[in-house]
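User: Please fill in residues for this 390-position structure.
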């Protein structure tokens, strides 16, 4: 009688294959039983759902904040039974997950490793999912779009701060010469409906820290700034009170650009362009350092934002705009120490390509009151007055 000799390597191969098949069957059965015993919840909408609207406050590319969400959603689409169920990490025991990982290079806690196994080219891909785009939109309501100068549709995500070497940029900007009899400074509000916490003096009911009532939103702050500039420093100011973010928030920057162009045509004497906003934290920061007490009165702190216009055909001369922001910051440090939070450089354009004297100014945040924001405008007006010549 002849015995068939089976090599040890073959035996190990067959054993591993059988074990893998058994594990897969067990996992499928487990998921099937769970789906039969527990009601299936509707999956939440992806965090990166695209809004087909227009904006300019944009980033250089769309980065999905939670990479795992992308892969989880992809798996859910391919395997509907996974919808509404806990993650594989929670379903599979540690020992089982460890065993699978050791023999199949699959991390059950990271769904992307399963996709990488099936589609090897994904393994070398960057861990942030990017779509060709440019610019920055500060608000959380998702991804926005803009139509560029060539008619292409560009996608955007929330604002992205960038590190740019500005060590060679100094505040050597000469004082801005105000000439002519018309308005010299344009104050406008791309996100005009942004508002602050209600207070005893300014008591109103905002919706998501926004209101169309111009007595309580950014228009009110701009009005106060214009008042101080005219009354205390005799500077001719024009305030555009258009609600550029209403009814469509995503059209904000497109709308404000149209307004700016109209204002420049109407008032060719305009030389400085100030887009007043307020910052927003939501629940991400319960105690932001956005208030300073000056002469015994709380005031909202101020931060300036300069955009590089990354990817745009018409880019801002951001270093020139940065000089203006730096000069304003230095003056704020003098007139009200502690009120300035500095300058932030981002990839957005923020319509700052329209001038070399354009800056976006965040007056406090949604954690401040309108009282505090209005208090800050007197110091901002003084700083502005200190860098102009009439």
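Assistant: Residues filled in for all 390 positions:
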């Amino acid at each position: 009688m002849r015995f068939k000799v089976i090599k040890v390597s073959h035996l190990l191969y067959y054993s591993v294959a059988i074990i893998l098949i058994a594990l897969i069957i067990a996992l499928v059965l487990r998921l099937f039983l769970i789906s039969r015993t527990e009601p299936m919840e509707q999956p939440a909408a992806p965090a990166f759902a695209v809004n087909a609207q227009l904006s300019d406050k944009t980033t250089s590319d769309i980065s999905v904040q939670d990479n795992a969400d992308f892969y989880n959603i992809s798996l859910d689409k391919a395997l509907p039974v996974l919808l509404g169920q806990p993650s594989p990490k929670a379903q599979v025991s540690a020992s089982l997950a460890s065993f699978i990982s050791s023999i199949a290079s699959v991390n059950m806690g990271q769904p992307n490793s399963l996709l990488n196994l099936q589609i090897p080219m994904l393994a070398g891909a960057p861990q942030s999912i990017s779509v060709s785009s440019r610019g920055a939109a500060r608000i959380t309501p998702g991804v926005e779009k803009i139509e560029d100068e060539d008619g292409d549709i560009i996608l955007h995500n929330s604002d992205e701060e960038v590190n740019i070497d500005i060590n060679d940029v100094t505040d050597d900007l000469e004082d801005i010469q105000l000439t002519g009899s018309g308005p010299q400074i344009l104050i406008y509000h791309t996100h005009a409906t942004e508002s602050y916490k209600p207070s005893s003096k300014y008591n109103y009911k905002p919706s998501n820290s926004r209101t169309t009532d111009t007595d309580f939103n950014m228009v009110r702050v701009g009005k106060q700034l214009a008042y101080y500039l005219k009354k205390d420093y005799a500077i001719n100011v024009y305030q555009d009170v258009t609600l550029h973010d209403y009814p469509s928030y995503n059209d904000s920057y497109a709308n404000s650009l149209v307004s700016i162009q109209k204002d420049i045509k109407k008032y060719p004497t305009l030389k400085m362009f100030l887009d007043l906003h307020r910052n927003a934290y939501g629940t991400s920061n319960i105690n932001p350092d956005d208030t300073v007490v000056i002469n015994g009165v709380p005031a909202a702190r101020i931060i300036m934002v300069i955009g590089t216009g990354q990817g745009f055909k018409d880019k801002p001369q951001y270093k020139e705009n940065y000089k203006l922001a730096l000069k304003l910051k230095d003056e704020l440090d003098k007139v009200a120490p502690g009120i300035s939070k500095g300058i932030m450089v981002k990839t957005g354009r923020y319509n700052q390509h329209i001038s070399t004297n354009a800056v976006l100014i965040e007056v406090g945040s949604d954690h401040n009151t309108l009282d505090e924001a209005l208090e800050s405008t007197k110091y901002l007006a003084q700083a502005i007055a200190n860098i102009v010549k009439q």
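For context: The first strand starts at residue 50 and ends at 54.
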